[in-house]
Amino acid sequence: MDYIRDGAEIYRRSFATIRAESDLSGLPEDVAGVVVRMIHACGMTDLPADIRFDATVVDAARGALQRGAPILCDAKMVASGVTRSRLPADNQVICLLDDPATPRLATELGTTRSAAAVELWRDRIEGAVVAVGNAPTTLFHLLGRLDEGWPKPAAIVGLPVGFIGAAESKDELARNPRGAPFITLLGRRGGSAMTVAALNALADPRE
Amino acid sequence: MDYIRDGAEIYRRSFATIRAESDLSGLPEDVAGVVVRMIHACGMTDLPADIRFDATVVDAARGALQRGAPILCDAKMVASGVTRSRLPADNQVICLLDDPATPRLATELGTTRSAAAVELWRDRIEGAVVAVGNAPTTLFHLLGRLDEGWPKPAAIVGLPVGFIGAAESKDELARNPRGAPFITLLGRRGGSAMTVAALNALADPRE
């Protein structure tokens, strides 16, 4: 079988293909860098049309990480995928879904475990980078708490996936990000792989 | 904000939406169950047209897991995402990408680390469930070793993603699966989230 075995060459050709085939013209250069990595993670060059963002999101997230901010993730797969060597300050990557307090909070609040775990972000969210790559209820719950006056994260990567609430939660984020710089992908698409790609790009501009 | 907070209801409506909107008519019932979970993980109902499979794949993978077979994964995100409580025999979920031997093997073989890690599967592959959710070179390298007479895995979940080699490696798997029951998605799409969804469905038929 004839195939390219040189990892660096695979990366180079992959990113060249993505830049040749996707319409990045509506995106600032730094946001385009993030979207290119998201495309790389899912194989779909049509993402840009559905991307919504605040123009400060890359500076805000990257600056926060350089100052040592933690990354708060909704799913273990997201936390697992972040490339530690790209993090500028050996940042903590935190997922509290399996915290012993989460199931009780979910019952008390009448919501999912994914949303209940947001409660445990309360003391860490100020200036943190938040990454939602799985559960729409996480994003909805977070936005509700921000409405109630929680401190603001440095940035929100809002990419929950699926059929019930995903599109709606991302519409809500894009319409009213509660003053937090954000990036999202409208519609049903999203997920942990794309979220990890966005985080890895925000952490380090190198392709 | 008005949204559904009941996790069980979210699942029920999600799977109902997927079954209403996707054309599963060309798939045996057990394979359709796997594809429904893959759709759930990516938000795209058009996967079925690109799915290729061996009709025995679900029985083969599920039987192997019930007999205690390990799952060999190409990426840590894949290993991280498998829901341990769905595994029928507390099966090992193994990713050897970070094994100390992998970088040296990659240099010796002139290939990627992802492909080199396949070498470390040699003594565990017979009857194992193999899951490739990231690197096309992993799938190519595995197929090459099977051509050379390696023992056969019980099943191959072949879902590498991307622009260089992904479509080609999955075409190769679908054209000639080397006697291994398989499931794949033609084209550039794939990735760790979809692969985890397939594994979780193979491990346990419950939606």
From TrEMBL, chains A, B:
All copies of domain Cobalamin biosynthesis precorrin-8X methylmutase CobH/CbiC, residue ranges: 9-203
Keywords from the named record: Cobalamin biosynthesis, Isomerase
InterPro entries the record matches: Cbl_synth_CobH/CbiC (IPR003722), CobH/CbiC_sf (IPR036588)
Molecular function GO labels: cobalt-precorrin-8 methylmutase activity; precorrin-8X methylmutase activity
Keyword Isomerase: yes
Listed pathway(s): Cofactor biosynthesis; adenosylcobalamin biosynthesis
Record bears the keyword Isomerase: yes
An individual GO BP term: cobalamin biosynthetic process
Protein EC: 5.4.99.60, 5.4.99.61
Listed NCBIfam families: PRK08285.1
Family: Belongs to the CobH/CbiC family.
Protein known as: Precorrin-8X/cobalt-precorrin-8 methylmutase
Source species: Hansschlegelia beijingensis
